[in-house]
Design goal:
Layout: H1 3-17, E1 20-22, H2 32-64, H3 72-96, H4 98-118, H5 122-150, H6 156-167, H7 169-184, H8 189-192, H9 194-208, E2 211-213, H10 222-242, H11 248-271, H12 285-315, H13 320-338, H14 341-367, H15 377-401, H16 411-443, H17 451-466, H18 468-472, H19 481-484
Parallel strand pairs: 1-2
Helix pairs in contact: 2-5, 2-6, 2-7, 2-9, 2-12, 3-4, 3-5, 3-10, 3-16, 4-5, 4-9, 5-16, 6-15, 7-13, 10-11, 10-16, 12-13, 12-15, 12-16, 12-17, 13-15, 14-15, 14-17, 16-17
Length: 488
Amino acid sequence: MSADVGDGLAPAVEAVTGARLHASETPPTRGYRVIALVVASALFMQQLDGTVLTIALPTMARDLGTPAASLSLALTSYLLALALFIPASGTLADRFGSRSVFCAAIGVFLLGSIACAQAGSLPMLVAARFVQGIGGAMMVPVGRLVLLRSVAKEDMVQALSWLVMPALIGPILGPPLGGFIVTWLDWRWIFYLNLPIGVIGMIGALLLVPEVRGDARARFDGAGFVLSGLSLGCLLFGFELASRPATGWVGAVLLLAGAMLGLGYVRHARHAADPILDLTLMRVPTFRLSVIGGSLTRITQGAQPFLLPLMFQLGFGLSAAKTGSITMAGAIGALAMKALAPRVLRRWGFRRSLIVAGLASSAGYATCAFVRPDWPTAALLAVLAVSGFFTSFQFTGFNAIAYADVDKTRMSAATSFYATFQQLTLSLGICTAATVLELGTLLNASRQPTLETFSIAFLLVATISASAVIWNRKFAPDAGAEMSGHHG
């Protein structure tokens, strides 16, 4: 038996024998590849579901009798559920065990998928997507938490690459698969696809993932959960409703309420013993800069999968199948980058690499503003592949350096905090794009957005993404050196 196979069996032995690891202990670093692949199955399902869905938006809008831009509610409700329940993921994993929470989360996600497939109206779909999001809120953060507690810092970049590489297959398969389903089958099969993948993930978790527990003695911050949840919910739906002429005043009220509740949470967190979102983590420089820079970048990443399929189908008149074959280029570029990330970071370090990648990816998304139907397909593919390459590199860098200086005893709080802002800004990206499209449609007195409106949306989110470079420059030259191996 090879060393790799032997190392991979270590977590399986612990899982089968029922051995439990605690956050205060130093778990073995062996077998992180196996754990990463099991966690990646959940991320694969999540990514496949999301990318297939974006291709189907125009067809779903027609069948449900609603404008295509209004389906941003279905995307936002899912991300809202993630933002609301991710903060509780670390506490639940500490109390009930990561493997148990991980498997339960997959089960909830699958129930939500079935409900989505049966939805007959936009409100039903929005509600079902919210249920899906509750499951998604626990799957990946809890899985990542197991990985972070099981890996030495010098192995962190490699471990995260193992985690995301299989998951990137979802965005590659998603667009063409979505086009095939919409063209030849029924869009409801998008959600039924999750069932076999989820079952396989649950079986793998039961056999291979250790039951990692943290310090369950900490009390659950119920007041903080309510305050942060209400604040995030009001802010997200406030942004969403503010973009629509008929509900603009409702959106303004929600935004004000969300801001007030957010201030209330900040005051609460200062005095809570174990706040559900630990704001003191922002005192760690590498964590703070990663949160801010990553959030600005993710606004664009949230908007891009929403804008591109709509522009290609509504603006260019392309079929769903053709749209899927083009948009997959971004995921292919992202996958090509993953194998290079450790070597690039080792040579150039986090600071310099993130600055260059930030400028390159923003320029790529800005280029999408000038794409027109007469562009050669090869040029479209090249733009999307380059954008995906550099954007994916940024996320790999941000996701790794965020935990460079976080103590392992605080990993649970850090992953919950980071993932919450991750999903919040992805949602904000969708809301921003939807707002521009709604306003453009209103000003042009048209039934659907024009190409000029799409151009404005791309330029706006690309500008937001480029502003992340300001924060990337604030990283110390040797930031994350223990992870990257860069010492020059």
